[in-house]
Amino acid sequence: MSMMGGAQARRAQLNREAVLSATPVRLLTMLYDRLLLDLGRAEIAQNIEDWAVASENLLHAQAIVSELSTSLNVEAWEGGEGLFALYTYVSNALMSANIHRDVARTREAIALLEPLRQTWHEAAALLPAQSAARAGGEYGLA
């Protein structure tokens, strides 16, 4: 194994360990961070007409939105149905952004999701670790 391959393998192992040991709320913030990273990369790729890279990132973003949507317990809290509707809307926007190579739809998804990412990070920072695990379970993330 080359030096570069060893470093990549170690980084992948550390990422797996971080995910496996994370509380549900931390997992949620990690998903949002990756989702916005994918969307930012897709937007850049769309702007330079690198459609393969744009598509790869949009598809990964769609997978994350799907995971967020399916793990959401809409009955656990009052805003659950609204958040589910937002995830459905964003999922459709990302499909459209990919199919029609529409950077405006990618930007729209970023504009809708970035405030949520920030809010989840703020909420996670306010919760002690034990409460964070319980809160994540209440939102269908455990």
Automatic annotation (TrEMBL):
NCBIfam families, per database record: fliS
Protein name, entry field: Flagellar secretion chaperone FliS
This protein's encoding gene: fliS
Pfam families (UniProt xref): FliS
Subcellular localization, as worded in the UniProt entry: Cytoplasm, Cytosol
Family designation: Belongs to the FliS family.
CDD domains: FliS
Chief location: cytoplasm
Top-level division of the source organism's lineage: Bacteria
InterPro entries given in the database record: FliS (IPR003713), FliS_sf (IPR036584)
Lineage, opening ranks: Bacteria, Bacillati, Actinomycetota, Actinomycetes, Micrococcales
Kinase found in the keyword field: no
Keywords annotated in UniProt: Bacterial flagellum biogenesis, Cell projection, Chaperone, Cilium, Cytoplasm, Flagellum
